[in-house]
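Late entry, written up from scratch paper. The run itself happened at the end of the previous shift, but nothing got recorded in the book at the time, so transcribing now.
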Amino acid sequence: MRYTVIAAGALACLAACNRKPEADAYGTFEATEVVVAAQTSGQIQRFVPLEGMRLTRGAVVAVIDTTQLALQRDQLIAQRRAGGARSTEARKQVNVLVVQRDVARRAYERTRRLFAVQAATAQQLDQTERDYKTLLAQIEAARAQTQSVALDVTSTDARVAQIADQIAKASVVNPESGTVLTTYSRAGEVVQPGQPLYKIANLDTLILRAYVSESQLASVKIGQQVAVHVDNGKNQIAALHGVVTWVADKAEFTPTPIQTRDERADLVYAVKISVPNTDGSLKIGMPGDMSLGPSK
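Output as recorded:
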């Protein structure tokens, strides 16, 4: 009889240990997902990501063909050289006209003095004045042309830099360490700027998005440690440490699959709890619950 009582007590103790504590909020786990897209157009020459593959930050995971971009760049570089030659020629032409203007100005001034003492005719004065003013107009036009050529060269330089940037972006660099969740492209496909290539997320830390009622809201603060519980699939409840990282500033209607302590509450507040997932046991979409206060 005594052994029966002891056995029953042990079973009751084991059941109590495995009993799930009362939860304050329920939700599901999610991760910060990043969709990596192409930034230039062309055919994918190499594509590394595979679903489930772990990628490191900064790794080159895809290469897009840049043959057409390289040809455009070479064409623009040739145009830039031609523009530079035109700019040099225009500056030299301005210098020649400046010399001619100085000669014409001296001739005009000399003719004016002679005309004042009646040693030159009015026709001679008009001719030297016309020559002088014509050169002034030619210099102004040549300088405007020089500025126009310089602007063309600057515009070409900007276009060359733009294409060089597109060529650099043809090598797709993984933005953060994580696990590839989904791939949208493969080698050999032609992509356009903005077209998704793959989706990645860091699964080392997952986010439990849960909902609390208005009466519980005062007990939840950013930075607060809470207890997070999940079913490990062996009829046991795993208790994990979590930290509240976000609390919604507006209420929303209770989502259908979510339960709260006060099921009569029409409005709830979403909270996010950061939970370490070093062993990879937590999965996106897995249900979990949160109890205010750290896990024991």
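The chain has four helices and 15 strands.
(Scratch paper discarded after transcription.)
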